[in-house]
């Protein structure tokens, strides 16, 4: 099948060898998926003049510039931030409260609007008075979703089997934007920005055919370092650039732009190019939270995609920064996330707390992502005690189900070009 994984189960087998995904790509010339590997010293050094006692707040773009550093090396502020995290390890472990047996999942009542009203009857009556089986209803639902352009299907069975340790699940997209005048980055040094788009799904949802409908709950995350953390040594800050946004708003932020400067004349900023699509989950293991993903496309990763940190499977330990504490000077955003008092109280005067999905619904939220190893997601998807007692699926089993459904969905669309259909973009506007 064009551009997709052959099977989620094959991906699971491949993930037992962390290096397996590293060696299978055969780069050829001509696309974001087929670029040569970046040289170690390929990132150009940027020299900046000193600013005299400037205290004005920076835009997100300026903040990201300052956080990148030269040649990808940690800035002094990065080092300070890492020391702060290491010194306050207990703060990172302040958890989302453990769910008691039989307790309702918090996202089922307040996350994603009405998206959790999933429970339905196992059978229903049609217009003629005939009782339809659940399988028949599912088939009809698939047809309806395809006709209306929304692949998200509601399933009471899926709601019951999805573990409570999955705080949120959905579709994830990875993007990068080339530097001014560079439409097709061939290594990390050619990249100006990297982004993640999260599209949350209802807790018990499954995927049918067609593109993903726009629920208006999309998020755009900005990665100042331009690369994803791949090991425990990598501790990178990520910003929520857009929250609770329509795909039109997201597209506007990812679009190309042209402008004129006095010194260089006409300048062209290329559009952000999609480099991966898959499924994700935000999970809790009791004392930590994790952002986990499994890629559906591309079927093979190019060298530049691997240099960005993409893997067939990946996960990060995630901790949200308390906005009441000052951070390094070069990470100050124009505004804070504007958390209400009840959220600020949850920090309990600690500098960090595990990521909860509701915190991503505020623009300018900053969270730390720490790599958990190449292709490793085991710890992030371990089954928790309450879910095991209730005979629910493990987080990994639910993610593999969702990835398999996404694989079929993508196959029925246009393979790799399904990303463009999902996002309402034209693939003709992007280099192949």
Secondary structure layout plus pairing:
Elements: H1 8-14, H2 60-68, H3 76-87, H4 89-92, H5 107-110, E1 124-125, E2 131-132, H6 134-148, E3 152-153, H7 156-161, E4 166-178, E5 191-201, E6 206-207, E7 218-223, E8 235-245, H8 247-254, E9 257-261, E10 265-269, E11 273-284, E12 289-297, H9 303-308, E13 313-321, H10 341-347, E14 352-354, E15 366-371, H11 385-389, H12 395-412, H13 418-423
Antiparallel strand pairs: 1-2, 3-6, 4-5, 4-11, 5-7, 7-8, 8-15, 9-10, 11-12, 12-13, 13-14, 13-15
- Spatial shape: globular
Can you give the helix content as a percent range? 10-25%
From the N-terminal CA to the C-terminal CA, the straight-line distance is 18 Å
Q: Main beta sheet: strand number and arrangement?
A: 8 strands, antiparallel, barrel
Q: Beta-strand level of the residues, as a percent range? A: 15-25%
Query: What's the alpha carbon Rg, rounded to whole Å?
Result: 22 Å
Q: SS-based structural class?
A: alpha+beta
Task: Describe what this molecule looks like in 3D.
It contains 13 helices and 15 strands. It has helices spanning 8-14, 60-68, 76-87, 89-92, 107-110, 134-148, 156-161, 247-254, 303-308, 341-347, 385-389, 395-412, 418-423; strands at 124-125, 131-132, 152-153, 166-178, 191-201, 206-207, 218-223, 235-245, 257-261, 265-269, 273-284, 289-297, 313-321, 352-354, 366-371. It has an eight-stranded antiparallel β-barrel with strand order 4-5-7-8-15-13-12-11. It has a two-stranded antiparallel sheet with strand order 1-2. A two-stranded antiparallel sheet has the order 3-6. It is globular, with a radius of gyration of 22 Å.
């Amino acid at each position: 099948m064009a551009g997709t994984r052959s099977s989620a189960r094959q991906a699971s087998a491949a993930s037992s060898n962390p290096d397996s995904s590293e060696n299978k790509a055969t780069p050829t010339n001509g696309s974001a998926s087929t670029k040569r590997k970046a040289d170690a010293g390929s990132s150009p050094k940027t020299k900046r003049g000193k600013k005299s006692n400037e205290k004005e707040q920076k835009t997100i773009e300026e903040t990201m510039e300052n956080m990148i550093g030269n040649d990808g090396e940690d800035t002094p502020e990065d080092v300070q931030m890492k020391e702060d995290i290491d010194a306050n390890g207990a703060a990172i472990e302040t958890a989302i409260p453990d769910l008691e047996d039989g307790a309702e999942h918090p996202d089922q009542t307040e996350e994603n609007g009405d998206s959790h009203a999933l429970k339905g009857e196992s059978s229903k009556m049609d217009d003629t008075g005939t009782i339809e089986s659940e399988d028949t209803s599912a088939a009809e639902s698939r047809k309806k979703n395809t006709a209306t352009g929304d692949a998200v299907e509601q399933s009471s069975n899926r709601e019951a089997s999805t573990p409570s340790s999955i705080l949120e699940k959905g579709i994830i997209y990875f993007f990068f934007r080339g530097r001014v005048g560079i439409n097709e980055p061939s290594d990390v040094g050619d990249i100006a920005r990297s982004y993640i788009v999260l599209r949350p799904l209802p807790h018990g949802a499954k995927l049918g055919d067609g593109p993903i409908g726009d629920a208006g709950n999309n998020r755009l995350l900005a990665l100042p370092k331009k690369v994803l953390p791949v090991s425990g040594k990598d501790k990178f800050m990520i910003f929520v650039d857009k929250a609770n946004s329509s795909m039109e708003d997201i597209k506007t932020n990812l679009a190309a732009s042209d402008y004129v400067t006095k010194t260089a004349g006409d300048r062209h900023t290329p559009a952000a190019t999609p480099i991966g699509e898959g499924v994700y989950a935000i999970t809790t293991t009791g004392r930590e939270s994790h952002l986990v993903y499994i890629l559906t496309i591309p079927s093979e990763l190019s060298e530049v995609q691997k240099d960005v940190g993409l893997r067939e499977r990946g996960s990060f330990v995630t901790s949200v920064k308390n906005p009441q504490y000052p951070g390094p000077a070069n990470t100050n955003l124009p505004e804070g996330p504007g958390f209400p008092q009840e959220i600020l109280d949850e920090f309990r005067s600690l500098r960090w707390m595990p990521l909860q999905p509701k915190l991503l619904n505020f623009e300018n939220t900053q969270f730390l992502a720490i790599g958990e190893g190449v292709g490793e997601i085991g710890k992030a998807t371990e089954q928790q005690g309450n879910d095991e007692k209730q005979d629910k699926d493990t987080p990994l089993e639910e993610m593999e189900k969702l990835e398999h459904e996404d694989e079929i969905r993508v196959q029925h669309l246009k393979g790799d070009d399904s990303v463009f259909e999902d996002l309402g973009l034209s693939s003709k506007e992007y280099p192949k």
